[in-house]
Amino acid sequence: MAMDVRDSTGTVGQMPVVARSRAHGRVSRLRSALRASALSLLILATLFAGGFGWFANKVSHLTTPANPAKADAIIVLTGGQSRLDAAMDLLASGKGERLLISGVHPSASRRQLQAATGGDKKLFSCCVDIDRAALDTIGNAEESAKWVESHAYNTVILVTNNYHMPRSLLEMGRLLHGAKLEPYPVVNANLDNGGWLTKPQALRVLFTEYNKYLLALARGIVPVKQTPDGLALAETAAGG
Fold first, then answer.
1. Domain segments of the chain: what residues?
2. Per-residue pLDDT averaged across 158-162, rounded?
3. How far apart are CA 22 and CA 190, in angstroms?
């Protein structure tokens, strides 16, 4: 009987020790998980910051070609008067047979657009096409691809601002498989030699565009499928 009491007492006495050991193990695992998460976040933040530095440096070194080679056609993405002026100058100088102005507001008429560009009326009438369907850069790429394919163009000069060029080339390159794109970046402000670091507005524009560029890259990685109504949706694990 005495032996039974001692055995029971010994077992009960060990229970707090076992509980403390298990609790210590849980705390250790939690600390390890937190350290791993913090390290992962630090690595991601470093990659993000490094990528932004690369992007800003790349954009700041883009320059407008002095005498671009002649192409079959020219495409300009709306978003600034300087883009339109540059595209019309290229058309007038014979750098392309036709010009597509992509992303024009539906309420803007051809006459208003021609007056805004200050281009030659005869040239504008014969050789300028207007896309009013595109609402963003993805839409620009889709409508431009249709236009290029319908005319069987092989080389196209793409006109847009320097900060917008990387994402535009990315989206266009996915759809214009048979045509070569020649970038014609329009530079409104000199950002070379790290000038963007001292200009808050330029820094803000570059940072915003960098995030959009990352989203565009992600769209190219995530598989998509076509639904019956033609809308592209990202495939999920549940949907296969």
1. 19-60+191-240, 73-188
2. 96
3. 62
